[in-house]
TrEMBL record, chain A:
It comes from Limulus polyphemus (Atlantic horseshoe crab). PANTHER family: RAGULATOR COMPLEX PROTEIN LAMTOR5. InterPro entries: LAMTOR5 (IPR024135). The keyword Cytoplasm applies. The keyword Cytoplasm applies. It comes from the Eukaryota. It is found in: Cytoplasm; Lysosome. This is Late endosomal/lysosomal adaptor and MAPK and MTOR activator 5. Keywords: Cytoplasm, Lysosome. Belongs to the LAMTOR5 family.
TrEMBL record, chain B:
Residues 8-23 have a biased composition (Basic and acidic residues). It is a lipid-anchor. Its main location: membrane. The keyword Protein biosynthesis does not apply. The keyword Transferase does not apply. It comes from the Eukaryota. Belongs to the LAMTOR1 family. Residues 1-32 are annotated as: Disordered. InterPro entries: LAMTOR1/MEH1 (IPR028209). This is Ragulator complex protein LAMTOR1. It is found in: Late endosome membrane; Lysosome membrane.
Amino acid sequence: MEKPLDRCLDEVFNTPGVTGVLCADAQGLCLSSKGTAHPRAAGVITSLMKQAAQLEPTADNLPVLRLESESCNILIQGKSEITLAVYKTPE
Amino acid sequence: MGCCFSSDDDKSPQHNEPNERTKLLSNPVSNNSVKPFISDDYGSSTKCTHSHRVDKQSALNRILNQAATNVIDVSGLDSPLEQNEYLNRAFQYNQRIMVSAQTFASLQKKPSLLVDLPAPEKGLAVNPISSSDLKLVSLYIYFFLYRLV
């Protein structure tokens, strides 16, 4: 049942520079994670996405978040009931 | 017949006294016209009398005295400041300005953006998210939605 989801995660994880991937639902529960992405981060990532969406409520698309740190950059994008977080090495 | 009118003037001394024929108004057309007052005629400077010259001089003196009383000579006012006095006054004025500026400093609105960061412009000046990263997350979120639905 999780195979399609796992295949998606594998495709993302195989992208050059990506060290981790996390997929969460609208309630912040982790659907699947891979690499350096910790499942406990699903709630925080979903909450951040919801907060950022309130900045521009009338926008058609949800914004893309980028959390920068010394070790990695986390890209967060939400769509309808799914929130995706991609962990990448800094450029 | 008789004489109704005669134009001959009667020059007898008895008729020097005013009578019914005495002219009340002087003749406007007369050879003995009054000469006009000549004041600044260049060609007739010789006609100015001594009294007239004196009047002009007194008028000039009156004008000069009036101008002298009305003129305000700025350069001739108080003695110029010395260097040290000038510096002292400048220092005092600056101190007064700083004291009064403190009362207005509290009224100034504090910036509401990133007040806890020492240099927010550095953080705001970083490069935005790259187009490749943007495409990465945008594309894969659709993959996830498509695969999960």
